[in-house]
């Protein structure tokens, strides 16, 4: 049951951030190095949260720490393209958020890359998990959609040998 990931359509995302690529983002093969995709994900989410008034990166009592990431690549992106980063939320937990992102070459209908990452929100000083602040939950609720990837994978049983 190992299905290959598929690119997602632009219509599946609730918010977009335009992010310019830089000359230094290209690698020896003439496209964005794979690590740049993760930087674009982080930029899109944090810019959205800052502009929504839900994140104060300098003095806020609560910060988000990335605890899990994933990316599937479907097509190349390269400097000097402007990337449209689609953002949506698959899960709002008590102290964590699962984001799903699509990176689009300009106004392309399908994502060149699809990513997922989980933020756990913690107290800045103690680094212990805290409940999502109301301002954060209010900013993220409009981005909520059904998840791409189930968080719990059911145990598969072979019908020929039910063990």
Summarize the structure.
The protein has 163 residues and is an alpha+beta fold. The chain has helices spanning 34-51, 134-140, and strands at 15-20, 62-73, 82-92, 96-105, 113-123. A five-stranded antiparallel β-sheet has the order 1-3-4-5-2, with helices on one face.
Count of the separate structural domains: 1
CATH superfamily: Hotdog Thioesterase
Structural class of the helix and strand makeup? alpha+beta
Task: Count helical runs.
Answer: 2
The major pleated sheet works out as: 5 strands, antiparallel
Overall geometric form: globular
Distance between the termini: 18 Å
- Rg over C-alpha atoms, rounded to the nearest angstrom: 17 Å
Helix content: 10-25%
Task: Give an overview in words.
By secondary structure, the chain is an alpha+beta fold. It has one domain: Hotdog Thioesterase (Thiol Ester Dehydrase, Chain A). Strands 1-3-4-5-2 form a 5-stranded antiparallel β-sheet, with helices on one face. Strand 3 and strand 4 form a beta hairpin. The longest helix has 18 residues.
List keywords for this structure.
single chain, 163 residues, Thiol Ester Dehydrase, Chain A, alpha+beta, five-stranded antiparallel beta sheet
């Amino acid at each position: 049951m190992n299905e290959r990931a598929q690119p997602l359509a632009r219509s599946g995302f609730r918010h977009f951030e335009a992010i310019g690529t830089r000359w230094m983002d290209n690698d020896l093969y003439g496209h964005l190095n794979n690590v740049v995709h993760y930087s674009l994900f982080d930029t899109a989410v944090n810019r959205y949260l800052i502009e929504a008034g839900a994140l104060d990166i300098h003095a806020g009592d609560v910060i988000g720490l990335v605890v899990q990431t994933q990316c599937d690549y479907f097509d190349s992106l390269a400097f000097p393209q402007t990337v449209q980063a689609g953002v949506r939320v698959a899960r709002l937990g008590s102290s964590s958020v699962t984001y799903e992102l699509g990176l689009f070459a300009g106004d392309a209908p399908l994502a060149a890359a699809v990513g997922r990452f989980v933020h756990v929100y913690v107290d800045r000083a103690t680094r212990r998990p805290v409940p999502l602040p109301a301002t954060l939950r209010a900013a993220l609720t409009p981005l909520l959609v059904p998840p791409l990837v189930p968080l719990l994978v059911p145990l598969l049983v072979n019908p020929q040998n039910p063990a």
